[in-house]
Specification:
428 residues; mainly alpha; 17 helices; 0% strand; globular; transmembrane helix; transmembrane; Polysaccharide biosynthesis protein
Length: 428
């Protein structure tokens, strides 16, 4: 597929994803505007726990499916078998994630005195939601690799629209009370269950049936999977923790009000997810399938120039006109307008780092990733020695330092990849 065709596909997917993000964003904005601040703090904390649990199931495995399938993306049994082999490992890792996150949830819950029954129901719903989310990830990955983009868009939109409608019913039709946090999380769970059902129907409509690889194929896939994932285990766990480090620190050392403010400011930056979804749907599968050569290099360079350019424009808008962005989250958080640029900078740097990382892993290039841990830790120690963690501004500064470390390291790795492939080409 040439560049113009790829661009048209990206714009088509982007328009659908934008609509989905708008619908999903409306639900998020309803939550941040209408939930009382103490309940929004609880919601932020529970979402962080869920994100962390799902992140622990990754340890590099989420980046193995595309390179393992490689140029055999048109062979449905092979795609299903490879994805099943990978996600079976992720299912086992979910048990490990539960053992790690539940003690943190228990300590933080008692530290903040969250003991009312709606919070306990919300926590139980969030735990169930983790399992449905992992099932949805599997179906999403299979459909994505097979190229059934229309089905993916349809399922994502219906899931987000259902969640938005249910949350709107909870927050607009019912009086906001102590039970609202439980009702909001239950609505999210119901939408996730619907998405899983729709994914299964989509797989059946495309005649994608369960398939288990033969013993020899499974062993070969496992060997390649372990080879690719091994350098990513430590940095993947570290990255997942870094993604929630601001909420983690505030939940343990700050107040519930600070926790709500971090979550509210981060809610605005989440609107940028549309760009990542377009890249995951259109770009990275194309990079994984592309033959090595000048066309691949040009594709990567154009994609990164466009992505970084978009992120820069968004950051400038937050720096110059923060008051308009703050309108999205309501008057409860107006006092934090001066800190919005820090949240955007942290999010944008981390997004760019993830974009570079996904580019590398889609080609199976996972070497040297372990050292990112030491590089980022050095920047964090420097930041903590200067600013500490006594204020929200200091915590956000730590987030910026963390994201900057990941950004610098991943683009250095991207440069090394370009250099190594150039040397190989000269040698041949």
């Amino acid at each position: 597929m040439n560049f113009k065709a790829r661009l048209r596909q990206a714009l088509a997917v982007g328009s659908v994803e934008s609509l989905g993000v708008v619908v999903g964003g409306l639900a998020g904005l309803l939550i941040v505007n209408l939930l009382p601040k103490d309940q929004y703090a609880q919601y932020t904390f529970l979402i962080t726990c869920m994100t962390w649990m799902l992140g622990i199931t990754d340890v590099g495995l989420a980046h193995c499916c595309l390179p393992l399938v490689g140029q055999r993306a048109s062979e449905t049994p092979w795609v299903v078998g490879v994805c099943y082999q990978v996600f079976r490992k992720r299912g086992w890792l979910l048990c490990l994630g539960t053992l790690i996150v539940v003690p943190y949830w228990w300590v933080t819950t008692h530290q903040h005195g969250w003991s009312d029954w709606p919070y306990w129901i919300a926590s139980a719903c969030m735990l169930v939601l983790v399992f449905f989310s992992l099932s949805a990830f599997y179906s999403n990955t299979v459909l994505l690799i097979l190229g059934h983009i229309a089905t993916l868009n349809r399922v994502n939109f219906y899931g987000l629209a259902t969640r938005a409608l249910l949350i709107a019913a909870v927050l607009l039709l019912l009086p906001v009370a102590s039970y609202s946090i439980a009702a909001v999380v239950a609505a999210t769970l119901a939408a996730s269950m619907l998405s899983v059902v729709l994914y299964r129907r989509g797989l059946a409509a495309h005649e994608v049936r369960p398939h288990v690889l033969a013993k020899a194929e499974a062993a070969a896939v496992d060997a390649a999977m372990y080879r690719m994932a091994k350098p990513l285990v430590l940095p993947a766990l570290f990255f997942q923790f870094q993604g929630v480090i601001t909420v983690f620190i505030v939940s343990l050392f700050g107040t519930a009000s600070m926790l709500a403010e971090v979550g509210a400011l981060g809610r605005i930056a989440m609107l940028l997810i549309v760009f990542d979804r377009v890249a995951a749907t259109v770009l990275f599968p194309a990079i994984a399938r592309a033959a090595d050569g000048p066309r691949l290099v040009l594709m990567v360079l154009r994609a990164h120039a466009a992505y970084v350019g978009i992120m820069l424009m968004v950051f400038l808008s937050a720096l110059l006109w923060p008051q308009y962005w703050m309108l999205l989250i309501g008057p409860h958080y107006k006092g934090q307008q001066s800190l919005l640029w820090m949240v955007f900078l942290s999010t944008l740097l981390l997004n760019c780092a993830q974009f570079a990382f996904m580019t590398l892993t889609s080609r199976g290039h996972t070497r040297h990733q372990t050292f990112v841990v030491f590089f980022v830790l050095a920047l964090q120690v420097l930041c903590l020695s200067v600013f500490g963690v006594r204020s929200l501004q200091a915590v956000l500064a730590l987030g910026v330092a963390t994201s900057l470390g990941h950004f610098l390291y991943q683009y250095a790795m991207l440069g090394i990849w370009f250099s190594e492939r150039e040397k190989r080409n000269l040698a041949t």
